[in-house]
Amino acid sequence: MARNAKMIKSPDGNKLAIVNPDAAGIDIADTEMQVCVPEDRDGENNRRFGSFTCELTNIVSWLKECHITTVAMEATGIYYLSLFLKLQDAGIEVILVNPLDVKNLSGHKTDSADAEWLMLLHRYGLLKPCYQPGNAARQIRNLTRQRNNLLRSAEKQILYIQKSLELMNIKLSTVISDVTGLSGRRIISAILAGNRVLEYLASLAMSNCKASKEEIALSLEGTWDADLLFTLKQSIEAYDFFMKKITDCDQEIEKFLKLYQAQMDTNEENLVRYKRKKNSRSKNAPVIDIELYAFSVWGVNVFDIPGLKDTAVMQLIGELGHDFTEKFETAEKFSSWCNLVPNNKISGEKLLSSRIMKKKNIVGQIFRTAASPMARDKSEMGYYYRRMRAKSGALQANVATAHKIAKIFYTMVKTKHTYDSSKVGLVEKEITEKKIAKLERALARLRNVS
């Protein structure tokens, strides 16, 4: 296992010790790989290889011949992944590093210089590794990200459907909240089938629609242009295509979740199901028992945490895996990796800036999305969100609530303890009582002055 930097004493003073003597550095690119090993391992210690599979195999063989046990490489796009997996399969430890952390070398920039610089930093233990889940979790992550791409494509088609209707002055989206829901699809299907009787089209709406049949009929009076009916039909077909692909993706995700579940030794009989509210499942939520699989992976039911639902938890399984708590020592370090804590810049004992860093972290985005509905939630987490919103604004409240959800999530997985709402903070009744007591004390002071 790669070690961190270490200082040693010498007659000339303290010096950095070589803690990873069998280390190499690899500069990653699309078409070539620059690999550097220590000078005492080979006469030509800095070599350039291609990116084809046979070349990647040659890299592994050469590193084995040089007795390399650990390798550092930059997390450059997706180009690193094939070599990363080959090195892992060969039993060589791989350290992925953020390119921004190793770009401080001055002078003329070349691939060979970058590879040597990576090797040098790694030998002295000066590199901070990026977090990477295991192969089983990575497979689920690939599929959940594909599912998100398909979902975004389907949502784009909904906009095209609404655009076609609006251009014909059919105001269906103003009287029905979801044009792709049961009522909207029945009406649109009848329109595409050639039916133009407004009263009949309005009667196809479900009884639970808030708008009256007369109002729906009025909204359906339009121009019925042939070109726009054609674009409407194509958008509907494209939407159905993407939704079918999402269903196929869900089935494939469940296959990999079952394989991942088989690797865990959790007893599913200990699962205490989360009490769902009626009709609380999202329209686009996967039709998979994510609650069971998440319990198998982490040994605790994270659905008890307000805001975490099927889609979010499924993504977290793929993005984090089962052993992420071993890579992050504390909940604060995990939250910092999620980019949910301020990036405090202090100089001269003065706080210069405390803004959140402008970088994307998918796990952090998942927690932020989970925090958004807390604005209307009546749980302790909802009270916390609204308190932060009154104090600092909506954006800061979202980040603060996401930070709290992330810390609770980490702690539950780490300690295997169930969710305790009392740890979130004071409930609204207690906060109101404290405010009243504070105002009473202020009033008493004014009376004493008078």
From TrEMBL:
Q: What InterPro entries does this protein map onto?
A: Transp_IS110-like_N, Transpos_IS110, Transposase_20
Instruction: List, for all copies, the residue spans of the domain called Transposase IS110-like N-terminal.
Output: 24-167
Q: Name one GO biological process term.
A: DNA transposition
Q: Which organism is it from?
A: Bacteroides reticulotermitis
Entry's Gene Ontology molecular function annotations: DNA binding; transposase activity
Report which residue ranges the record marks as coiled coil.
Answer: none
Q: Which domain of life is it from?
A: Bacteria
Name the UniProt record assigns to this protein: Transposase
Q: Where is the Transposase IS116/IS110/IS902 C-terminal domain?
A: 304-382
